[in-house]
Amino acid sequence: MTASLIFSATGVRMAMLILCASLVGCGGLSKFTQETFRPYIPEVVQGNFVSKEQRQAIIPGMARAQVKDILGTPLVTSLFHADRWDYAFSIRRQGVPPQSFQLMVTFKNDVVATVEGDDLPSESEFVARLQVQRKAATVTNLQASEEDLKKFPIPPVAGSVQPLPALPASYPPLEPSPR
User: Fold this and answer.
1) pLDDT value at position 66?
2) What 3-state class would DSSP assign to 76?
3) What pTM did the predictor assign?
4) Is 112 a member of any domain?
């Protein structure tokens, strides 16, 4: 009877030891799994991107149609603020901090009165901000040095190099000729 109690206590201890070791082993894989198995996060783009160059092209006194030609359709127009167009833009990409810009154009008698908004980037600055910063991968040197080449003997050439056979001047037709 005591032998069965000792064996069961030893079995329980072994089971606990195996369980603890497996949990510790799984904890070491968390960094590997986080780096390797990342969920896909879709790119979210909302609104109209307005560049610094487009903003500078809008001057007081321009008609609504001219503003629409340069900036596009406004993202927000309100019935309560018919003389105000709001251009908002936001983008979220994986590996790049989110960006958002706003621009407000107000009209008086259907011509531009004021243009207010965030400090907008130029098109080239915006593209540079979207570049995903990736870790530089280590590149293996594939160039062999003279010492490396000397390690491998050059096989003796048996006879001279034979030229390739001459190619035919014409090839047979792919389809039979009509009779």
Assistant:
1) 92
2) strand
3) 0.52
4) yes
